[in-house]
Amino acid sequence: MELFQNFFSPTAPVEIVALLATLVLCSLIGLERQVRQKAAGFRTNVLVGMGSCAFTLVSGFGFATILGTDVTLDPSRIAAQVVSGIGFLGAGVIFKGNDVIRGLTTAATVWVSAAVGMAAGAGMLALAVALTAFHLITLFVLAPLVRRIPNPDRYRFVEVAYVDGAGVLRDVLGAATSMGFSSSIDRTRRVDEDGRTLVIVSTRFHGRPPLSELVPRLMDIPGVRRVSVRSEDDSDESHSA
């Protein structure tokens, strides 16, 4: 029976309210990731938040029975370990491929969910609510506004010279699409170089990543001979294989 003495302890209502608040707030955060079909969706964010809340509650209230004149506790120690552990969990949703890093926003969202849970567990419900609200405002309001900022790449296009008849253009467009670019071909022409026929295609690539990230990826495609980034005034930055 001694094991269950604290089941209905004076802090039990506080603990339940903190967990319920974490469930609601982290559900809002997780739904945004779930709708966008990210690696860490609804369940991950809710579980991370509630786990962080529970660890914080245990840190604050779980060892009250052993306190005494010769025993002192530092509740911040468990909280510090939660932050470190969430860092490893967040790193698991970050992917790097083809010189493109994805998942940073999802990893940061998991980190925020942990912070919401810890704030609720520490009794700082106002902070937990405000953090959730600011997080959602950042993703739903500020992020779309930032994307409206004029992008200098919008007034530039890429010239790719590749070997004719090898299906290179398909690979070029596929690589750009995988990086989040949309494309529109302005013009193409054929030239003879070193006894081989090359196709030079001028293409506008539109997307959030800068063109500087696209050029190295295109240069790695077999059959691509040159990649030139040109502006409207015909100044260019050329890269050759």
What does it look like?
The protein is α+β, with helices and mostly antiparallel strands. It folds into 2 domains: 2-147, no CATH class; 152-240, 2-Layer Sandwich (Alpha-Beta Plaits), CATH 3.30.70.1150. Helix content is 50%, strand content 21%. The protein has helices at residues 12-35, 42-61, 76-91, 104-121, 125-147, 168-178, 211-219, and strands at 95-97, 100-102, 156-163, 182-193, 196-206, 224-231, 236-240. The strands form 2 sheets. The chain has a 5-stranded antiparallel sheet with strand order 4-5-3-6-7, covered by helices on one side. The protein starts with 11 loop residues before the first helix and ends with a strand. 27% of the residues are buried.
- Strand order, largest beta sheet: 4-5-3-6-7
Q: List how many beta strands DSSP finds.
A: 7
SSE series:
HHHEEHHEHEEHEE
Give the helix level as a range of percent.
40-55%
